[in-house]
UniProtKB/TrEMBL annotation:
GO molecular function, one term: sequence-specific DNA binding
Keyword Ribosomal protein in record: no
InterPro entries: AsnC-type_HTH_dom, Dimeric_a/b-barrel, Tscrpt_reg_AsnC-like, Tscrpt_reg_AsnC/Lrp_C, WH-like_DNA-bd_sf, WH_DNA-bd_sf
Gene Ontology terms: biological process: response to amino acid
Protein name: DNA-binding transcriptional regulator, Lrp family
Pfam families (UniProt xref): AsnC_trans_reg, HTH_AsnC-type
Domain of life: Bacteria
HTH asnC-type domain span: 4-64, 172-232
A GO cellular component annotation in the UniProt record: cytosol
Biased composition (Basic and acidic residues): 317-330
Keywords: DNA-binding, Transcription, Transcription regulation
Region called Disordered, residue ranges: 310-330
């Protein structure tokens, strides 16, 4: 697999800071031409399945989030995972542990209830076990991205691109739903396309985008195969932590470059993390030399990730074999 160069990494970092930054602005910061940035962006999309997605902060959207762990027989697990990936109420669908375990984030709201966990999953005869973990607090993930996406720009370049965010405490308006749906498909959709999706004028869309970004209600994420950034080994870590030390351990883990997601949850394990490491040896070193030094972690279960079928945004188009452009880039 080809690795990305400094311009590619700088572009990814820039898009993580501001998913709607213009090519000309990014080019000026990186010291290259606008045409170069446009070509690199299109190549990353076409060849490596990269996309920028705009997402509403879950709490502000009135959502509750669950981590669901499902096990199924080897010949049904992939079809089940694909079915889960097609649902609008799931994100982050992964096949793990030899291809028999599926892990997904389930988003629920007061208006929709919880049909997946309460109705649909119990009716699936191919599922052999289920556990659901309510996400109590995310230490990393969402607006706080994996550091592997943030190693392409200098401090000065970051300051040139970073948006000023003044956090608020209001909930996202119901009228923003169509806008967020469109941004979830393509965070860089034009104002004209977003106007068509919302029924607003382009000027109204621009004002609303600026308002949502300025308060942190809207953030952007870059979806790309982490192997292109040097992380070829993924694993989900399920930890049981002494309750009195849970917040301290979660805060510490959120500073580890190896982790893309860290969250406190309910259940027999109360801290979950997603590790991205250069290779199996690097994962072993991380588990033994970094996590192993934290005495408050009483137990640790490591589940290797075999395939990601869905990330933060809606499911991407698949070919007849069920693969997305990102899968083919692996």
């Amino acid at each position: 697999m080809c690795m990305l160069d400094e311009i590619d990494r700088g572009l990814i970092h820039a898009l993580q800071l501001d998913g709607r930054a213009s090519f000309s602005r990014i080019a000026e910061v990186l010291g290259v031409s606008t045409q170069t940035i446009a070509r690199r962006y299109q190549r990353l999309r076409a060849d490596h399945g990269m996309r920028v997605v705009g997402l509403g902060e879950p709490h502000r959207a009135g959502q509750t989030r669950w981590l669901a762990r499902l096990t199924a027989s080897p010949h049904t697990a992939q079809d089940l995972a694909l079915a889960l990936a097609r649902r609008a109420d799931t994100s982050w669908v992964k096949l793990a542990s030899g291809g028999t375990e599926i892990v997904t984030i389930v988003d629920t709201g007061a208006a929709t209830g919880n049909p997946l966990l309460l109705h649909d999953i119990p009716r699936a005869t191919s599922i052999t076990s289920v556990s659901a973990h309510y996400i109590l607090h995310a230490y990393r993930g969402g607006p706080t991205p994996w550091p592997g996406h943030l190693k392409g720009l200098t401090e000065h370049q970051q300051q040139q691109l970073a948006l000023e965010v003044v956090p608020g405490d209001r909930l996202l308006a119901a009228t923003d739903r169509d806008l967020l749906t469109a941004l979830g498909r393509d965070g860089r959709a034009s104002l004209t396309d977003l106007a068509a999706a919302t029924g607003w004028s382009p000027a109204t869309v621009a004002r609303r985008l600026a308002a949502l970004q300025s308060t942190g209600e809207l953030f952007f994420d870059v979806e790309i195969n982490p192997a292109l950034l040097g992380a070829t080994t993924e694993a989900l870590l399920w930890m049981a932590v002494t309750p009195a030390h849970l917040d301290a351990v979660g805060t510490t883990l959120a500073q580890h470059d190896e982790l893309a997601f860290v969250a406190a949850t309910t259940g027999p394990t109360n801290l979950m993390a997603h590790a991205l490491c250069a290779d199996p040896g690097a994962l072993h070193h991380y588990l033994t030399h970094r996590l192993g030094t934290l005495d408050a972690i009483r137990t640790l279960e490591t589940a290797p990730v075999l395939r990601t079928l869905k990330a933060a945004g809606p499911q991407q188009p698949r070919d007849k074999a069920g693969f997305t452009p990102r899968d083919k880039a692996r």
